[in-house]
Write a structure and sequence with these properties.
17-stranded mixed beta sheet; 3% helix; single chain; mainly beta
Length: 367
């Protein structure tokens, strides 16, 4: 189903770009939505095979190649500097070929506005060739726990040997579990089945220049109460459901900036039926370019005090006010402990300048 869309985006972008099971959920139909779980890809694993998998079986040491989390053969979690190819990005920066040019259209809601020089549009060529498919979840420990606070993968492509189908509920392996305070840079998550449950942040985390070729379950999950998950200068493609899942409560925040998200169901969803569900959960979007929005950009739980703040959202073809397409911010009444399904409020229509949806139509740009 999604490969027809994917081929179109591939032509546009010139690209080919244990396990922690989430505690709950599968999205419902047109008027009900529990806000978590559901699948996000029907693709198959790309880039890498079992011959490149980790042989050590240790979550922090799998694989070879000398990246910061493996240190090469015999190395530990804190050794190694990563050996990217000449085309890979340096610390803190992306490949120069990923930079988006300034928009040229002046029509549509909000008019035209430059997107800046740090908004990537093309996933870099992996520095490790076909990529590496690891046998189990890799834990990125922070410095306090014997790891590092910054992991720079030099545009290596890595996945996990996931056996749970992307389109069949929960149970997918997590590729990377990220401890509190860790920054992950210049990483490509392999597409399709090998993308598994993506990245799960267990505390404050920053995902900088991280690229998801073909989202499987979720691209990244905010899972620690009160924590902030930051996604910056990143790309996520082909998510049939959610891209970023937000399970954490207690004033936790997901921030997405300077990024390109395409061909997806929802860019962000606050969990609609998690165990001991609650809030508040907060989303901040600024300077993000989207296209191929199938459901909505964001879905927030009004009854738990969630907030969505959106500025400088650039929508391919613009926002159609008459038809309310694509939907930008939807409000829900969530439930707890899987006691039924969360319900879309206001008939699922986009909400503007409310206590929950803190977004103005003037902040929705056309490109």
């Amino acid at each position: 189903m999604r490969f027809e869309l994917k081929s179109a985006f591939t032509a546009l972008l010139l690209i080919g770009a244990a396990g922690l099971a989430q505690t709950a959920c599968s999205d419902g139909g047109a008027t009900t939505d529990d806000g978590q779980g559901g699948s996000a890809s029907s693709g198959t694993a790309s880039g890498g095979d079992s011959s490149t998998s980790s042989t050590s079986g240790n979550a922090t040491t799998g694989g070879t190649g000398g990246d910061p989390t493996t240190g090469g053969t015999g190395g530990g979690a804190t050794t190694g500097t990563g050996g990217g190819a000449a085309s890979s990005a340096s610390a803190g920066g992306g490949d120069s070929s990923t930079t988006a040019s300034t928009t040229t259209s002046s029509s549509g809601t909000g008019g035209e506005e430059p997107l800046g020089d740090d908004l990537p549009m093309v996933i870099p060529t992996p520095s490790n060739g076909a990529g590496e498919i690891r046998t189990q979840t890799t834990v990125l420990k922070n410095a306090a726990n014997g790891g590092q606070d910054v992991y720079d993968f030099n545009n290596q492509k890595i996945g996990v040997n996931n056996t749970a189908d992307c389109d069949n509920g929960e149970g997918q392996k997590t590729v990377f579990e990220v401890e509190h305070g860790v920054t992950v840079k210049n990483l490509i998550i392999a597409g399709g089945l090998a993308g598994g449950n993506g990245i799960v942040c267990k505390g404050d985390c920053t995902l900088d220049h991280v690229y998801w070729e073909d989202v499987c379950e979720d691209a990244a999950t905010n899972s620690a109460d009160g924590a902030t998950m930051r996604i910056n200068s990143s790309i996520a493609l082909h998510a049939s459901d959610k891209v970023f899942q937000h399970n954490a409560k207690g004033g936790s925040t997901t921030i997405v900036t300077n990024s390109y998200i395409a061909d997806f169901g929802k860019l962000w969803r606050s969990c609609g039926d998690c165990t001991a569900n609650g809030g508040p959960r907060h989303l901040i979007i600024d300077n993000v370019r989207v296209e191929g929005v199938k459901t909505a950009v964001a879905g927030a739980n009004q009854n738990y005090g969630d907030t969505v703040t959106i500025t400088n959202l650039h929508v391919k073809g613009g926002y159609n006010d008459r038809d309310d397409k694509p939907k930008i911010c939807q409000e829900y009444r969530a439930v707890t402990d899987h006691m039924g399904e969360s319900q879309k409020l206001h008939g699922g229509a986009s909400q503007w300048n409310t206590a929950t949806c803190r977004v103005s139509k003037s902040d929705i740009k056309r490109w």
